[in-house]
Amino acid sequence: MHSSPVALVTGSSRGIGRAIALELAQVGHAVVVNYVASGDAAEQVVEQIHGSGGDAVAIQANVGSTEDRVRLLAECESHFGRLDLLVNNAGITSPGRLDLLETTEENWEKVFATNLKGPFFLAQQAARSMIESIHAGQISRGTIVNISSISAIAASTNRADYCLTKAATEMMTWLLADRLAEEKITVFEICPGIIASDMTAPVREKYDRLIAEGIQPQKRWGHPEDVARAVAALAGGAFPFCTGQRIFIDGGYHIRRL
Ligand code: NAP
């Protein structure tokens, strides 16, 4: 069994997940760098972690696939022998960003499988593994962090499926937090705002304009590292009497203003 706490960060080959993996390694976690297609990018994250004296492994798995999720947890277990932290970060935006009058069931199913079904059943599997390790006295507590979005509270009619999955992540977080409190597992939701990544690259100019016009009090893009620092604080146990909490990392976007 690994001597350091072990974190599984889904979708950590790029963007926000990558920053989370690097930050967690920095604060002493061994990290499973999960990806679906970008093997080279994932290996680069692993190399970077090894280069700064940390431990990491890249594991390919589609979080929307039942078989892949089972294999992901099994490989994580066989490589590190424990799991202390699951970060459900992998996510996709709505393919084609179609207006809700045009969007398709096919898109809906893809977005829901990746953003909601996958994270829920991964949390279920991870919690079972954590509970076993806690009962065996191998770890003292577990943590699950769900990366949601300000799209949980902001309607984008060209991304209905995406908004719906993110809104449901709040209830998923509450359900898991309620059930798992007695098991010494805390569960949190982080809602990033407008963050510079491949996901937002196609709409960069629109967001540049909205930020300049003051759509949020802090007039800048968020960086993946802004989200990563919040995850590291939660993983470090900074909030022991707290679970089910939603944290906005959004420059104040969520504040209603008049
Ligand atoms: P991104 O740059 O597009 O990166 C997505 C990551 O998820 C990649 O590592 C990708 O792996 C992985 N991924 C996608 N589908 C997957 C699947 N089925 N199974 C496993 N991994 C998968 O996205 P991001 O901006 O970093 O977003 C990360 C999370 O933050 C998402 O949940 C997103 O909804 C949320 N978020 C983002 C923003 C934003 O402004 N960027 C705002 C709010 C919330 P590959 O590299 O292998 O493709």
What does this protein structure show overall?
The chain has a single domain (6-248), classed as Rossmann fold (3-Layer(aba) Sandwich). 44% of the residues lie in helices and 14% in strands. The chain has helices at 15-26, 39-51, 66-80, 105-135, 160-180, 204-212, 224-235; strands at 6-9, 30-35, 56-60, 85-88, 142-147, 185-192, 246-249. Strands 3-2-1-4-5-6-7 form a seven-stranded parallel beta sheet, with helices on both faces. The radius of gyration is 18 Å and the shape is globular. It binds NADP nicotinamide-adenine-dinucleotide phosphate. NADP nicotinamide-adenine-dinucleotide phosphate binds next to helix 1 and strand 2. NADP nicotinamide-adenine-dinucleotide phosphate (NAP) binds at residues 10-17, 34-38, 41, 62-64, 89-92, 114, 147, 149, 192, 194-195, 197-200.
SSE layout and pairings?
Elements: E1 6-9, H1 15-26, E2 30-35, H2 39-51, E3 56-60, H3 66-80, E4 85-88, H4 105-135, E5 142-147, H5 160-180, E6 185-192, H6 204-212, H7 224-235, E7 246-249
Parallel strand pairs: 1-2, 1-4, 2-3, 4-5, 5-6, 6-7
Helix pairs in contact: 1-2, 1-7, 3-4, 4-5
The protein binds NADP nicotinamide-adenine-dinucleotide phosphate.
NADP nicotinamide-adenine-dinucleotide phosphate (NAP) is lined by residues 10-17, 34-38, 41, 62-64, 89-92, 114, 147, 149, 192, 194-195, 197-200.
